[in-house]
Amino acid sequence: MPWRQPEPIIERASSSTQFYIVQGKIQNDSLLTHNEGRINKMLAYHYGIKDPAIKPLLDSLERAQTEKDTALVKTLTSTLNTVLDNYRNFEKYTIPEAHRQVYKTIGGTPHLDQNYTVFGEVISGLEVVDAIAAVETNRQDRPLEDVRILSMRVILKKIK
After folding, report:
1. What are the Cα distances from residue 69, in Å, to 49, 64, 74, 83, 138?
2. CA atoms of 58 and 41, how far apart (whole Å)
3. pLDDT of 4 over the 90 cut
4. Cα–Cα distance between 77 and 66 in angstroms, integer?
5. Would you say 56 and 140 are in contact if contact means Cβ atoms under 8 Å apart?
6. Do the beta carbons of residue 95 and residue 32 sit within 8 Å?
7. pLDDT at residue 1, as a whole number
C-alpha cells in the first residue's frame, strides 16, 4: 500500500454520493482468511499512522516532500511502508463464526462488514448489477470510467 498524507481524523460515515452494490460471491475458508489479512492490513495502516511513535517518520517524510527531495521521499516511503506492514499495536480482527457461515452460504464482501450500513436489496435488474461488475477497473478495483445510475426505484418494505 503506497503511503499518502494522512487525512484529518474524522468520524467514519458513508459518503452521500457513494455506495456499494455487493454481489453475493460465495466465500470459502481460504478466501475468508485472506480477507481477514486484508482487513488487518488496513487496520495496521489506520492505527499505525496515528501512533505517536511513528510521527517523527511522518514529519521527516513531509519535510522531504516539501523540499522535493525525491530520493529521500522514496527512502522514507519505503521505510514507512515496512513499518506499517509490520505494525501490530492494535486488536486484530477475526471474522465471527456466524458471519463466516453467511459468507459461505449466501456470500458477501467481508471488508465492508461492520463498516457500512446495508440499506437495501436489488430485487430486479440484476443484469445491470452484473454489467456494472464487469466494467474494467484499476489496481484499486475502481472503474476506469465513472459508472452512473441514471434512475432507480425505491420500494419500501415493512420489516416483520
Report:
1. 21, 5, 9, 21, 29
2. 18
3. no
4. 14
5. no
6. yes
7. 43
